Amino acid sequence: MVAFKRLLLLAAAFASSYAKSSSGDSVLVIVEPKKQADYTLFLDGLREKGYDLTFRSPRADAPLLTQDGVPSFSHVIFFAPDTKSFPSDITPQSLVSLLGSKTNLLITLSTKQTSLTSLAAEFSLAPAPPGTPLISYFPERSEPLNVVPIQPPSTSHILSQNMAPVWFSGTPFALGNNPMLVPILNAPPYAFASEVDGGSADSLVDAAEKGGEGLWAGSRMGVVTGFQTTTGARVVWAGGAELFSDEYAKKQISQGVESGNKQFAQEVASWAFQESLVLRIDHTEHHKFNTTTPSELYTTSDELVYTAQVSRFYPERGVWKPYSDLKDLQLEFTMLDPHIRIALPPVEGKPGTYSVQFRAPDRHGVFKFVINYKRKGFTHLLSSTTVSVVPPRHDEYPRFISAAWPYYMGAISTSVGFFLFSAIWLGGEVKAFDKKGKGRKAE
């Protein structure tokens, strides 16, 4: 009995520390061998969660990212921001294909122009010109101007609240209007890009005139930004690899105040590797009111009931559980354009169940039940079910329609009037005529 209890305790302890991704646990880390030790705390944190790490030099040919068109790893980390050329299997096109295969990426940039910098433009990011890192004169500190402390936002779904400031050194980038972008960490409002790293003093002005990005300054610039594809894959762009380093994780913000780099790096990786904010639709069903049998054919003005089951991934135990905290989920009943858009609220007492009742529109055609839930940071929820809506059959119409009573009364009054006219005509007096043309009464 004692041994059994010990086994239970060991299993509970193992489960509490076991937190893998919802999409896989294999990770390829592309980093110079001599720089692996610079990221020990971050990489050990991934191992503690249960990830299987494989390392590859930026100029090595193996292991391959894909073999026979199938991704070899669930996640790829690029800690080689200064590498200008990679082997043939690492190209902007191959990385985009990896995202299409639901492989997640964590990419770090630098103030140097590389192929990864060019790839960033495909994700609506505009890095500052080469040699112009982010700098700030505030707050006053002993570190170089391009080593900037940044306070993470307290309203982010991705990051914990009240996180300590993090150290950042690298390049900022302007954010486009792509709705798939997920801002994670923006530059301070008093920071800007400058040429202290060997760039030209006129490079920023020249780039602004050519690209129209304006000066890279203020809190609208991003330094860590996520991007979530329509397939659910995620990629995180970080302006500097030092953000994940042991040096910045151990560097104090001020006397006695530890930096938040270690926690920040782990939480960013959790989002990038689809541990956090991962949702899915398990099941949907639809039927007429007061029935339980689904149908592919409904009649105009039918009362319909639509139900969806939503669950969320919990990395603490690596399981999916029903999730009822979505307060803004909506359902569309659409034919080209939505004819009905209605809230899809959670059902009290049924975890993860969302249901709504509505009347089918008075329009026949091919319709779709559509859930298209897109919120910053969360997995996109998309479900589409096709049904047909038809007019009633000839024997399904009511015997008498209340709106047609004026026509009924007109028909009835016409019939009654014709009957009375006929009775009077046939039952009235008939005169007989003699041979002389004079009429006499018939006997």
TrEMBL record:
Give the highest taxon in the source lineage.
Eukaryota
Where does the protein principally reside?
endoplasmic reticulum
Signal sequence interval, chain numbering: 1-19
Q: Which UniProt keywords apply?
A: Endoplasmic reticulum, Membrane, Signal, Transmembrane, Transmembrane helix
Transmembrane regions listed in the UniProt entry:
405-428
Q: Hey, which family's this protein in? A: Belongs to the DDOST 48 kDa subunit family.
Q: What is this protein called?
A: Dolichyl-diphosphooligosaccharide--protein glycosyltransferase subunit WBP1
UniProt organism field:
Agaricus bisporus var. burnettii (strain JB137-S8 / ATCC MYA-4627 / FGSC 10392)
Q: What is the lineage of its organism?
A: Eukaryota, Fungi, Dikarya, Basidiomycota, Agaricomycotina
